[in-house]
Amino acid sequence: MINSKKQKQFQAPKGTHDILPEDQKYWKYIMKKAETLLDYYGFERIDTPIFESTDLFVRSIGEGTDIVEKELFTLKTKGGDMLTLRPEGTAAVVRAYLDNGLNVKPHPVKLYYFGPMFRHEQPQHGRYRQFFQLGAETIGDSSEIVDAELIFLAYKLIESLGLDNYNVHINSLGCSQCRPAYLKALKEFYKNKIKKVCSVCKIRFKDSVLRMIDCKEPGCQEIAKEIPQFVDYLDEECRAHFKHILEFLDEVKVPYILNPHLVRGLDYYTRTIFEILPNENITAQSALPGGGRYDKLINLLGGSKTPAAGWATGIERIIMAMKERNINVPEVRPKPKIFLAQLGEVAKRKSLNLFESFRKAGVEAKSSLGRDSIKSQLRIAHRLGVKFTLIFGQKEALDGTVILKEMESGVQETIPLEKIVDEVKKRLKS
Ligand code: AMP
Prior knowledge:
- By secondary structure, the protein is an alpha+beta fold.
- The protein is built from 15 helices and 16 strands.
- The protein has an 8-stranded mixed beta sheet with strand order 1-5-6-11-10-9-7-8. Strands 13-12-14-15-16 form a 5-stranded mixed beta sheet, with helices on both faces. Strands 2-4-3 form a 3-stranded antiparallel beta sheet.
- Bound molecules: adenosine monophosphate.
């Protein structure tokens, strides 16, 4: 008996999305560009689990940050362990670096990763609860060239994808020596404006005054225009470090903007931070790669004092930007050159072997083995724009031949089956 009651239809969970076949070409194209670039510059791929111990993220990203406070997907295992779906890649890469003894390898250790990240955000265009990040990290070198190389690579990646109207926004957050003086100046600045800032910033004023700078409330943004600038408070070493990075960027002609309002929402950054943003129409969702230096994180996670820097970019955001600019990418599979149409039981049975012999010969072919009507198969062949259609009917299957139809002229010829692959290859070349 047919059950007429309609079953509930499921939808993707809020903030997640399916990556459909028609979009796969973007993913493949971006990853190929990224892997070729990073590989050339000596980065090796690392894959870490999708979940980690909750403490890892709390300790690294920071307790007062939006990510840790509001956005973690956390679960308790049957054994009582607290695990969290990774909201970003750096903490996990550092954990893996220490866990697997990569810290005894020659430094710097250059790693890159790619995979889904999870943040319980309010979903909107370009902001998801599951999104994919590609990230690169250079561990074990504090020199300016490391920061510059990472920024250069992030920029080159974006540029190589056809996104050429972007700038690097850059700032320095100093180190533990000079940061207190800046935070003091910032508190001083906000002290007599506290009545005018939003309710969240009133709380931030107490323990994360730095985050008041990039508050998205219009009133707070207006006030932030006048903030003291970190570059004026950097100690000598941090100032020299920052200046050298800018000189490197000048040398390689990466366009940058000194942005005193850039703070980034993670606690672990020291000195350099950057984001790559479009020249115009900047929104909260326009940042592509973003990252910086995190000289204290490895020590914080149980390793010895080891400087490091890195960045991550959202892949969905890159695709969005490419689509907005009508940037075309090559199809995942090259266009088929031939179509194999079959008719009748014997031909259908033998078609798979015939199709396979074209794959082995490197000839792009298409077929529609589920169909039985020649008319509908020829219609598909026309739509695909193939040069030849092979017609393999009952008679041909028994005779050991196949009909080769030239689509443009409509001319047909019968060819022995054992010669068809060579014949097609020859004619495709001419
Ligand atoms: P973050 O890890 O916050 O520094 O972000 C690095 C990059 O990841 C951003 O510049 C975006 O390109 C991307 N990203 C961050 N959060 C999301 C999200 N919720 N949805 C989509 N992409 C994101």
